[in-house]
Amino acid sequence: MRFALSTNWNNGRLNDGAAIADEAIALGFDALELGFRTMPEQIAGFKSRLDRMPVDSVHAYCPVPIGAPSGHPELHQLAHHDEDERALARMLLTKTLACAADLGAKVVVTHAGYADLNGFFVKLDSSVLRELVINPDGVPDVKQPVYAKRLAKAHARRKKRGRKLLEVFRRELDLVIPELEKTGLTLALENLPSLEGFPNAEEAEALMKDLAGAPVRLWFDTGHARVRASYRWDDPETDIANRFAPHVCGMHLNDVKDFHDDHRQPGWGNVDFAALKPLAQRDILRVFEPHEPVSFNDLKTSLEMIRRLWS
Predict the structure, then answer these.
(1) Strand 285-288 relative to strand 4-6: parallel, antiparallel, unpaired?
(2) Which residues, 6 or more positions from 204, have their beta carbon under 8 angstroms from its beta carbon?
(3) 101-152 pLDDT, tens per residue?
(4) Is 70 exposed, middle or buried (0-12, 13-18, 19+ CB in 10 A)?
(5) For the domain 4-114+166-310, what is the CATH code?
């Protein structure tokens, strides 16, 4: 079974793309995902190692656009009501597709955008909900009546506003698909760890039905799915994984402790990786996406554990 490593883990401390690839080789990975923190000057180093460490996927936007303060997957959003915002997102995505094609990647992962949940008088965004879930003892509790009541309102608003955003995003994809077909790449829409995150399960289902045969698929982030399930923003992550398995072309492997997007190595938190084995055994990309605090040895141990668990 093949596993890739996101370069977001080590390109903050290693400037040379070749050195980043060499570290992935030493850890036992089979391929790379170029993360959204990839700098233009690192690309040459990655190219020099393609014979030993191929690039399976690229996370938009990559490389970091000239003039951007730092790399970020949401510098601009393709799922947005503002036309200029969508045009900028489309421009950056096109450049990412060119980079991915040049490196021989198969998939470009993207954060599509967000459905705004705030109003003039009532805010229902995820930051508000996260505060309401904390009980007087400082412990998260989704069974609190005040949280359940506000969450029901948030879900209703999310459904309504998501429908409107879906219409806009679907038209935007019509402009992107020809470029995907030209480059031979697949665009993967990642599940995001907030109620606003677009597309949610219902929107993703509608898109996959409407885009059957098009080079647009879904990307399953294990940690994001666990966070969404913990807050009751979505069904349990194993249910989501099974429901969308035919439409998933890849997954990010990172672990969390329920309510926080920790991005730690598998085995560290509460994600049930054993239950995700059916999805992992499909013909998809599998990418470890830990954050920098994860050590070399912990990551190596985690990779070995997952290989045993899913073999």
Answers:
(1) parallel
(2) 189, 191, 218, 244, 247
(3) 999 999 999 999 999 999 888 899 999 999 999 988 888 899 989 999 999 9
(4) exposed
(5) 3.20.20.150
